[in-house]
Amino acid sequence: MKKGVLIFLAVLFIVFPPFLWAKGGYNVLEEGQLTVYFEPSLGSIAQKVADIYPKVKGDLENIFGWSLSLKPSVVLIKDSKHFQKMSENPFIVAFAVPGKDLIVINYSKVNIQPFSLDITLKHELCHLLLHSQISGDILPKWLDEGLCQWVSDGMSDVVINQKRSLLNRAAFRDTFIRLDYLRRHFPNEKEGLLLAYEESKSFSAYIINRFGKEGMLKILNYMKRGEDLDSALIKVVSMPLPSLERAWHNSLQEKITWFTYLSYNLYEILFALMALITVYAFIRMVMRKRAYMKQGGEDIDGY
């Protein structure tokens, strides 16, 4: 999402009070430490957001051991075209704006699997929590996204409708996106974006599975105190990021076999075989036709 959109949203929330949002077509619901801006037809959904917020907030506080003291604002949008103009990305279903304590949700997509209102809110609120505790200059984007997928049952900001894992293909071909390239930004094109989310989730889970949840929390708490990720990794797991990244790559590649790859590419393989069969049948038809024409010519000359 471009900086101009973030600035636009920030100005709306700083300059214009809630009653102007209401006049502009948005109603406002304030409940406790939460404000929800919503289109009039989404009144019941706004109330549901307010109802589930305390539990979502409590779950995140229990997971990370941090207090979420900010007062977030949630904007519910029903019109996908309007939402896409704000996000400037057709694959995004929701996004958070850290520093502005703002969450924007495309509700028309939330009721589509694997999304639901509570896990979407949990995912985006996780972004706000992480950035409220760790400086954005220290927190890599891949770790930010990986952890938020971890706490929200694997759900990401994007609409994932792929049937097969891009990460498996990258592991087989050794075409991973290096984490250094995902430190500040994710690719814009669809496959690169989806692979970046898969890698973020997988590597974050690898750290947690290998060193435990406590290991990950120790890393985060060092970062909270101002340590960069590399320094935190050395102190907690005694490995620099490049070494840990290679170990993760190896763990994925060990699980990939030719059978797995053939299963992953089954549709492409079948399509290629059908194309070859079609070409073979065409060649045979041409050869038979030529043989027939040649045989016919010899009969005429002999006569």
What's the quick description here?
It is built from 13 helices and 5 strands. It is an alpha/beta fold and 303 residues long. It has a 5-stranded mixed beta sheet, with helices on both faces.
CATH class of the largest domain: Alpha Beta
CATH architecture of the largest domain: 3-Layer(aba) Sandwich
CATH topology of the largest domain: the name is: Glutaredoxin
Number of helices: 13
How do the strands of the widest beta sheet line up side by side?
A: 1-2-3-5-4
**Helix and strand sequence:** HHEEHEHEEHHHHHHHHH
Considering DSSP H and I runs of 4 or more, what fraction of the residues is helical?
Answer: 55-70%
Question: Into how many domains do the coordinates divide?
Answer: 3
Mean pLDDT: 83
What does the overall shape look like? flat
Rg on CA atoms, Å: 26 Å
Class of secondary structure makeup: alpha/beta
Could you characterize the architecture of this molecule?
- 63% of the residues lie in helices and 8% in strands.
- It is α/β, with parallel strands linked by helices.
- The chain has three domains: 1-133, Glutaredoxin (3-Layer(aba) Sandwich), CATH 3.40.30; 156-264, no CATH class; 267-303.
- The protein has a five-stranded mixed sheet, sandwiched between helices.
Give the key terms:
about 300 residues; Glutaredoxin; five-stranded mixed β-sheet; 13 helices; alpha/beta
Summarize the helices and strands and which ones pair or pack.
Layout: H1 3-15, H2 18-23, E1 27-31, E2 34-38, H3 43-64, E3 73-77, H4 80-87, E4 94-97, E5 102-106, H5 107-110, H6 117-133, H7 141-151, H8 166-173, H9 190-224, H10 229-237, H11 241-255, H12 258-264, H13 266-302
Parallel strand pairs: 2-3, 3-5
Antiparallel strand pairs: 1-2, 4-5
